[in-house]
Amino acid sequence: MASEPFTTEPVTLIQEVFPGDTNAYNTLFGGRLLSMMDTAAGIVSSKFAHRQFVTVSIDALKFKKPAYQGDLIEVTAKVVFTSTHTAGCHVIARRIDRAVWECEDICYGFFFMVAIDSQMRPIPIPQFIPQNDEEKQLWAEAEAARDAMKAND
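-> structure tokens emitted (153 positions)
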């Protein structure tokens, strides 16, 4: 196992909101947005550690605003916390209104991904070390979210 992460760069995915992604109000289904965010968390974790990952838990997501049919959804994920086998990813979703090309945050939260081997057993990953105040703050928030979820097990 590498002692250093392979990369700490974020991953950004962009998708369009199509009619099949929306409800009767012409807004994006929450579950569809959750899927996009989970995909970004899985990719950024794999890129970070060069391992396969599965989702183990998701912090309570904050749905701030809707997205509409025709919008673009930009999802950015970054590994901000690690434990022996787990990568904690901060994921932010933004809608881009193509009429004015403006972005606004619509949802954010923490996704916790566990690295697995071919037998679906947890395996160790490189460790993330926060380098600045923003990274230290996100680490603390992710750790608090993980600890709160573990307390409810």
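Helices lie at 30-49, 133-151.
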